[in-house]
Each structure stands twice: as structure tokens, then as C-alpha cells.
């Protein structure tokens, strides 16, 4: 319970000093804890949507705005994405911050309700395809086949895969060549995940 309280305080921007440093260090090395953080974020988002709007106290408003600095909510995934994309931490933070920008460069995806942002990769993954994918709640991402290895890291929301697997923020999936599937974005905040592909996927008839 103490850890859960710390995670909630972290999401609300109410954790600082040594406590903040200690929790962020744990998040970088503990995938289970990052998944728990993602689940709590989803739950808090769902609760906020169910409540009537109210004006927060000035001090609470300041803390909340600090927690909502562009990309701050994605901080737990920085370490994993530096390895996944072979980029420096500051470069990854800049890419994550762009997700909250009003002019974020989202492009139409393969179906209505899906969008993507192309991402760079470092020398270790030269030639690979990478991107942020956003899928609105309830939208089914079309059936597709992998022509090469695919690695996915969910950083917001969740999905139900056609295999029956459920992935939430912090979960990672690796699919090999010739595998195929589709999935549905779960209710709650829009699904956002990072994907790297050895080859472009092949979509079934849309």
C-alpha cells in the first residue's frame, strides 16, 4: 500500500526530493512497478472522467500542472525507450514531450481512429522502422502479418490482442516473422505504444 501511495503521489506531482529520485530509479529497473503505475494512471483518468468538474485549490492546481509538463507522465519509460530506439535520454524525452504538443505530427493510420508519428532510431537499429501509434478506445487495429520482428512497448492505455493477451502501460510484446494478429484498444485513455519493425507489416484487406 505504501508503494501504491507513492505512485499516486508521483502521478499527482506531489512527490519530490529523495523520495522522487528513489521511485524513479525503481521504475527504471522494475517492469512490474511501471505496469502498476500505468494501471493507476488509467484508473485515475477513468475516475476523473466520471466526476463532475470542480475548480482545484491554487496549490493543488500548481502541483497538477507541474505533473502535466509535456512528456512528464511518460518519464517512467525513458530508460526502456533509449534502449529500444538506441537514442540518448534527452532525445527520447523530446520525442515523448511532442505527444502532448497541440501540433504533434500525427499522421493518419491504417484505419479510422488510429494515427502514427514516425520516429528515428540510432545506429544499432539502422534501417528499422519505428513510431508512436495511437488508437482510440474501442477501435480495432486491422489484422496484419509481420514480415519481420516487431517489438511493442505500451506507454498509455491498453489493448486486447486477438490471441487473448491483454497489454497495459509498461507491458512489452515481441512478435516474430510470419506472425499475424489484430487487437482492440481498451476503454479509458487512448492507447499509445511505441513499435519497432524490422520490415513493414502486411495488412489484410481494409
Note the topology:
Blueprint: H1 2-11, H2 17-29, H3 31-50, H4 58-67, H5 78-85, H6 89-98, E1 107-108, E2 114-118, E3 129-135, E4 140-145, E5 150-156, E6 158-161, E7 166-168, E8 172-175, E9 180-185, E10 191-197, E11 202-203
Antiparallel strand pairs: 1-2, 2-3, 3-10, 4-9, 4-11, 5-8, 5-10, 6-7, 6-9
Helix pairs in contact: 1-3, 5-6
Please tell me about this protein's structure.
The chain has helices at residues 2-11, 17-29, 31-50, 58-67, 78-85, 89-98; strands at residues 107-108, 114-118, 129-135, 140-145, 150-156, 158-161, 166-168, 172-175, 180-185, 191-197, 202-203. It is of the alpha+beta class and 206 residues long. The chain has two domains: 2-96, no CATH class; 102-203, Jelly Rolls, CATH 2.60.120.10. Helix 1 crosses helix 3 and helix 5 (78-85) packs across helix 6 (89-98). The model is unreliable at 59-67 (pLDDT under 50).
Output the number of helix runs.
6
CATH topology of the largest domain: Jelly Rolls
Would you identify the regions where 5 or more consecutive residues have pLDDT less than 50? 59-67
Task: Give the averaged pLDDT, no decimals.
Answer: 83
Strand order of the largest sheet: 1-2-3-10-5-8
How much of the sequence lies in strands comes to 25-35%
CATH-scheme architecture of the largest domain: Sandwich
The N- and C-terminal alpha carbons lie at a distance of: 46 Å
Oligomer: single chain
Number of strands: 11
Based on CA inertia axes, which overall geometry fits? Answer: globular
Helix and strand element order:
HHHHHHEEEEEEEEEEE
Overall number of structural domains = 2
Main sheet record: 6 strands, antiparallel
